[in-house]
Design a protein that fits this description.
By secondary structure, the chain is an alpha+beta fold. The protein is built from six helices and twelve strands. It folds into two domains: about 40 residues, no CATH class; about 200 residues, Lambda Exonuclease, Chain A (Alpha-Beta Complex).
């Protein structure tokens, strides 16, 4: 979903910045005045990992599915994933989710009722939650920034399971691709030290999973941060110079004096 930010410049104009899902932005502070300054923009983890070479099973799936159908599946998966993520957050917060609860569709911005497939994902998450019984939720849906390498992303869940700390990425798809492991690895290396980042184990939780009767699959994965950095190098080479849209607009407009003035009205003198 696009983010639009408007700021008033010193010369009295409105600077409009439009950033799509490839970017994360945050306001900065002028070190001298302490006042809000320019926005800082960095690439999203998911944008960087999209440059990691795809696996052979992916290309086989793409060949069998076809490009157009694959793109349609990708859009639908993004819409489903966004709604499920929001609803899962509500479940973790202790809310009750009705079967016909509505959540925003990222493609349209309009609220839409949960589909049966999306509700199945929530049932699967509930089953997983009650099976593993997390002992403590440290963070959910939290935006993380890596200052050293200049990227940001949203981690789904950081919680304690028995004696371990797990950083979990939630997926609603049926496939686990290598770039998914790179994503959660990147999130780990952006965790604050106060959250015992070095101790965090990584896992992918697939909900609405159809290959078993439980409806979910919990897969612990190894930290693949060096491969993420390799993907970042590819991204850096391919996307050099790509940035957010930024343009200055006047606060208001009016037609200038170059137009001919309207004709004067002359009152007609009555005849004697």
């Amino acid at each position: 979903m696009k983010k639009t930010i408007k700021t008033v410049t010193q010369d009295g104009k409105v600077q409009v910045t439009i950033a799509d899902e490839r970017f994360y932005g945050r306001p900065t502070t002028d070190p001298v005045t302490g006042l809000p300054s320019e926005y800082e923009w960095v690439p999203a983890v998911t944008w960087i990992t999209s440059f990691f070479p795809k696996s052979l099973p992916f290309y086989k799936w793409l060949a069998n599915t076809g490009w157009d159908e694959a793109q349609a599946i990708k859009v639908a998966a993004g819409e489903r994933g966004s709604k499920v993520h929001q609803a899962v957050g509500d479940l973790i917060d202790g809310k009750t989710i009705a079967m016909d609860a509505a959540y925003p569709n990222p493609s349209t911005g309009q609220e839409e009722a949960l589909t049966l497939e999306e509700y199945d994902c929530l049932l699967a998450f509930k089953a997983w939650w009650e099976t593993v019984a997390p002992v403590k939720v440290i963070a959910r849906e939290v935006v993380l920034w890596n200052e050293e390498y200049g990227y940001a992303g949203t981690a789904d869940l950081l919680c304690g399971i028995k004696d371990d700390l797990f950083l979990i990425d939630l997926k609603t798809g049926q496939h686990l691709w290598p770039e998914h492991i790179l994503q959660v690895s990147a999130y780990k290396h952006a965790l604050p030290e106060a959250w015992a980042a070095e101790k965090a184990k990584l896992a992918i939780l697939q909900v609405g999973y159809r290959a078993n009767k439980r409806g979910w699959k919990f897969t612990p994965v190894d930290d693949q941060f060096p491969l993420f950095l390799a993907a970042r190098q590819i991204w850096q080479k391919e996307c050099e110079g790509v940035t957010v849209f930024k343009r200055d607009y006047p606060l208001a407009i009016a037609l200038g004096p170059t137009m001919a003035p309207p004709p004067e009205k002359h009152s007609e003198e009555s005849a004697p």
